[in-house]
């Protein structure tokens, strides 16, 4: 009889650890996978077009207006590596101390704070250097 109680306790303990392991991580993973922070400093006059594309990604549209190339960039401004790591560590520690209950708060928080959608229209001069930047969405 003593062996069955010990076995039952071990089984319950195993189930609790397995459940905790499955609960921990959703907000941790989400924090770590947030979009990266883009260097908006490239959106200054005289920056080369190639630098903008390298930092912000491919434009969603490119047109020629009055002889000038005009790109529209749209992206999610994310977080620095240190900010993402700090958030992930915080969520992990909170998960451990609350036995996974933190996920009720942590996961929705990561859905809300998933970066800001930004859209810019950039006009270049004849040398494909930034001439004008217009914020379309911030």
Secondary-structure blueprint:
Blueprint: H1 2-23, H2 26-32, H3 49-56, E1 61-65, E2 68-77, H4 81-97, H5 103-112, E3 116-124, E4 130-137
Antiparallel strand pairs: 1-2, 2-3, 3-4
Helix pairs in contact: 2-4, 2-5
Account of the 3D structure:
The chain has one domain. 46% of the residues lie in helices and 23% in strands. It is built from five helices and four strands. A four-stranded antiparallel β-sheet has the order 1-2-3-4, with no helix packed on it. A hairpin with a 5-residue loop joins β3 and β4. α2 runs antiparallel to α4 and α2 packs parallel to α5.
SS content category: alpha+beta
Strand tally is: 4
The low-confidence runs, each spanning 5 or more residues with pLDDT under 50, are none
Major sheet strand order: 1-2-3-4
Describe the structure concisely.
With 138 residues, the protein is an alpha+beta fold.
Please give a handful of descriptors for the protein shown.
rod-shaped; alpha+beta; 5 helices; four-stranded antiparallel beta sheet; 138 residues; single chain
